[in-house]
Structure formats: structure tokens, C-alpha cells
Amino acid sequence: MPEPMGFFTDTTVCIGCKACEVACKEWNQLPATNGGLNTLSGDSYDNTRQLDGIHWRHVKFIEQFSPDRRQGRWLMMSDVCKHCVNAGCMEVCPTGAIFRTEFDTVVIQSDVCNGCRDCIAACPFGVIEINPVSGTAQKCTLCYDRLRAGLQPACSQACPTQSIQFGPISQLRPRAEARVAQLKQAGETQAALYGTDEKMLGGLNSFYLLMDRPEVYGLPPDPKMPTRNLKPSSLWSVLGTVALGLMAIVSFRSRGRDDV
Amino acid sequence: MSSTLFTRAPEWRWLIILYFFIGGLAGGCYFLAAMMDMFGRPSDRRLARLGYLVAFPAVIMCGALLTLDLTRPERFWHMLVQSGTWRPMLKLYSPMSVGAWMLMVFGGFSLLSFLAALKGDESGFGRLRPPGLLGAVIAILGGLSGAFLAGYTGVLLSVTNRPIWADTTLLGLVLLVSAASTSAALLLILGWESAPGGGIRALARFDSWVLVLELVVLVLLVVSLGSVAALWLSAWGALLVVGVVVIGIVAPLYLYWRAGPAHADSPVMGAVLVLIGGFLLRVVIILSSEMA
Fold first, then answer.
1. How far apart are CA A48 and CA A41, in angstroms?
2. B210-262: pLDDT as tens digits
3. How many angstroms separate the CA of residue B215 from the nearest CA in chain A?
4. Dist. CA A137–CA A100, nearest whole Å
């Protein structure tokens, strides 16, 4: 049995080249937006804009500029499915299309998915979308086919700065912690890991080194499992059913003898 | 900032809004019909019959709406059977999975009661309705699965990570209570001419109580949303207050209350408004999160 594998993305060395996006599209044969028409975002150098059914990697450009544009910085982060140890998408999927692989990654089987879109609503990170070509929900597979063949994922292989590092989680975590310590020693006090804490969905098999608050990168500060609401919601509904039943009994029972 | 604001909308739109509305009516009408059959007067059977006649066609429409909403409708059966292994596909912790099964279960019971209501007591199908033992068992199980159908949709919304939906645990209760009020209203309208009498008055009384309960639950819903309720400081909030609360709850309560010889048709007008309010409630709940 292989050990859990994943990505450590060190955003401090990402240069925004988008080689990972291209490699992902090439390997997974994902179509271009609008059939390849040149569509620009209009307000950013990032024209991908989001992860979705045909973008399984997305290099985010967080462009922080002062109003007079004299001061500014760019944060760059190659975003991807987090391959959560406790995966909300897999939990709610009613067809069993989403499964956990032997590498502890999360994969959607396109031939099983029927496009109910429950996983889209359940994903805490907004990663999943419908691929318009297949009509099914799709996202990063962490190159399951390549992993089975003993290769590393296309994105991490293409990354020229080692911002995306692939490997066993047991090796990636100490490496990430050492990198944070190094950055803090150099005065970068905001450097922090996102997704290594097992309190966050059991730990993310794709985790990040960030230089600002998670929200700045478009990451939820406190992602949770969708089923946290299942028991209380169900209990309220059961109580409601009992209350409505009693109200109906009283309504139909207690009326005057002549009220037929 | 709520973490639900970082997620993506599943694009559940008008087909799902319609499903929530019609599903609520199907489950609610059956539930009320079963209660009338078991606890009402013999004269209420005409009214209960209408409930069974509504429930089955409505649940068929539900299945069609849900199938059409899939991006791969031809694979609707993957909800029930594992493609490849042919084993049953059921996840007790996935509301959509349980809901798909319960739609089938409720469909079965509502078909039996529909046949009983259609063929009448003279035929053999009459035994499928209370007061006999077989009829009582069908009414109880059908009524419970109907209540499930009416309420699980809200639980399903809460078992996601979307804003508003996953920020409260009260949506199941809200939609259940609304299903009860809209179903009572629909039966009142359908039975107004064909089954007048004490049953109709009992329905109007029941609907008044349920509308008051609905108002209380809606206030609790807004409170439970906390800071996320700010999303309703918008056109959605206005629609909730004007469309759902004023038109769909307060005005019908008044119309039910003033019913009398001078305002004979007042309850029917009230019931029509309850149906409009119930539909708008689902529009607000679904679209305000979809567009957040």
C-alpha cells in the first residue's frame, strides 16, 4: 500500500508563469475556455480567474496595490484541489462517483458522475465545477494515472521554481515546517502553513505556505465538513414533524359535534 | 468572515425551486390526507381523497424535475444503483442519496393511496386507505415518508458549504413547516367547492396555526444566520419580508381570521396567497445563496 501523497505549494517562490496550468491542461486533455477564444479578465494579468471543470490548476495573482499605485506587491499561488483527508465532496456524492485512492487522494470518476452538483456545493474551497464537454463534475485527480505509473503529477514536474513540490506527506510536512522557520528567521513573520493542521478537515494533502491571511488568497479561514449540520438539521425536522402532526390531530379532532 | 463565502454555487435554479415547491406539496398533501383519514370525521374523507390525488402526480413531476436538472440526465439511476457493480447505492449520511431513495418509497405509497382515492371504496383498492389495518399502515408509512420529502430538501441545503444554506441548521424545519402551510392551502382551494364543511374549516384553522409557527421559525432562521444574514440586506431580504412574510403569512392570517358570512371567500384568497408566499420563500432561500 503506497503512503499518502500530496503537494506542498510554497507560494513564496511562485513566479506566476502558469507552466503548471499548461502542463495540467496538456496532460489531462482539458479544453480551452470558449473553444480557445482569447478572453481577457480585464482587471488582472490573470485570465484563468478560477478553478473549474476545465481548469484543475489555477495560478492566482493577488495584486495588492495602494490607491495611488506607488506601493504594491503580488502574491502568487498555484491553487488546486486540496485532496482533503476528510473530503466534503466525497461525503455528499450520492452516486459514489468520488472515491479515495490508494495514494490518499480524492478522484471523481467521470463515467459514474451524473451531474447532480452536490459536490460543488459541498466543497469548502470552491474547487469543483462541471466540465462542459463531459457534462460531469471534474477537478484535479492529482494525476492518478501518472501516479499509478510511478510518475509525478504533470504540474509539479513542470514547475520551474519548485513552488509545487510533490511527494509523500510524511516528507513534505517537515520540509514545509523547515521552510517556514527559515522565512521567519529572515524576518518574514507572516509566513505560515495552511492545511497541515489535522483539525482542518483531517489535514489537506495539498497544503500551502502563505505570506498573508488565508482570506487574502481566497482560502476559507475555517473550512468544515458539510455533514456537521446533518444531525441538528434532521433533529429540527423530526421535531417539526411531531409538532405538525399534533397540530393536525388537534385541528381535525377538536371541533364541535355539529362541525362536520 | 464565514468560510461558506469561499465556495462555488451548484447552479441549482428554477427546476430545483419548482422541485422544492412541488415536493413540499406532494409530501404535505399526503401527510394531511393521512392525518384526516386517521383522525378526522368520516365527512373529511372527500378532502383527504383530494390530498392523495394531488400527491402521486406531484411526486412524478418531482422525479422528472430532478432528472432534468442533472447535467447527465440519462444517468439518473446512478443515484439508486451502482453502475458497474449493480449493487444498491445508498449513503445514509448524504441527504441527496437518502432523498433519492425516499422519493421512490414515497412514490410507492402515494401510488397505492392514489389508486385507492381514484377507484373509491367500492373497489378492492378501497382497502388501501384507512380505517382498515392495511390502509392505516400505508397511511402512516406514506405520511412519514411524505413528511421526509417535505423537509429533507432543507437538510440537504444545510449539508453543503454554501452561504446561508450551511450557516444554519433550521432550513429543514423552515421548508417542512412551509410545505405544511402550502399543502393545507392547496387542499383548502381544491376542496372549497367539492368538499365544503367542517373539514375545510379545520384546514383553515390548521393553516393559521402553521403560519404562526412559520413566522416564528423564520425569525429564528434569520437570528441563526448571524453575520451571514447581512446577505439578506438586499432585494432578497425585501422579497422575504414583502413576498413571504407580508403576502404569504400576515395577509393570509388576516383573511383566515376574518372569514365569515360577510367574507365567505376570504379563506380561498388567503390560501392563494399562502401558495405564492411558499413559492417565494423557496426562491429567496435558493437564489440568494446561488447569487452570493
1. 8
2. 999 999 999 999 999 999 999 999 999 999 999 999 999 999 999 999 987 77
3. 14
4. 16
Interchain CB distance below 8 Å, B209 and A247: yes
Residue of B nearest to A220 (CA): B3
Which chain A residue lies closest to B151 (C-alpha atoms)?
A237
Model-wide pTM > 0.90: yes
What ipTM did this prediction achieve? Answer: 0.95
Q: Would you state the cell numbers that stand for residue B249, as one nine-digit string?
A: 403569512
Task: Report pLDDT digits (tens) over B92-125.
Answer: 999 999 999 999 999 999 999 999 999 876 678 8
Count Cβ atoms within 10 A of the Cβ of residue B46 and give its class: 0-12 exposed, 13-18 middle, 19 or more buried.
middle
Residue B176 pLDDT > 70 = yes
Q: How far is B273 from chain A (nearest CA, A)?
A: 20
Nearest residue, CB atoms, A94 vs list B31, B44, B100: B100
Residue A240 has its nearest CB partner, among B8, B78, B173, at B173
Is the pLDDT confidence value at B184 over 70? yes
H/E element holding A192?
A: strand A192-194
- Reduced to 3 states, what is the DSSP secondary structure of residue B220? helix
Domain that holds residue A260: 226-260
* Alpha carbon A177 to its chain's center: 22
Proportion of chain A above pLDDT 70, given as a percent: 98
CATH number of the domain that A132 lies in?
Answer: 3.30.70.20
Q: Are residues A155 and A234 part of one domain?
A: no
Give me the domain span that covers residue B30. 3-290
- Residues from chain B that touch A234, judged by Cβ atoms under 8 A, are 155, 172
**Total tally of structural domains belonging to chain A:** 2
Same domain, A38 and A78: yes
pLDDT at position A222, please?
A: 96
CA dihedral B42, B44, B50, B55 (to 10 degrees): -90
Phi, psi of A133 (to 5 degrees): -80, -50
Report the alpha-carbon distance of residue A68 to residue A86 in Å, rounded. 44
**Residue B92 corresponds to which cell in the numbers above?**
445514509
- CA–CA distance, B3 with A215 (Å, rounded to integer): 9
The total of structural domains in chain B comes to 1
Q: Which of B149, B148, B171 is nearest to B159 (CA)?
A: B171
The one-letter amino acid code at A45 reads: Y
Beta strands in A15-135 (DSSP E): 57-65, 72-80, 98-100, 106-108, 129-131
Q: How many CB atoms are closer than 10 A to CB A106? A: 27
Domain co-membership, A213 together with A122:
yes
The total number of residues written for chain A in this structure: 260
For residue B132, the domain's CATH number is 1.20.1630.10
Structural contact between residues B171 and B285, judged by C-beta atoms closer than 8 angstroms = yes
How many other C-beta atoms are found inside a 10 Å radius of the C-beta of residue B204?
A: 23
- Residue B140's SS3 state is helix
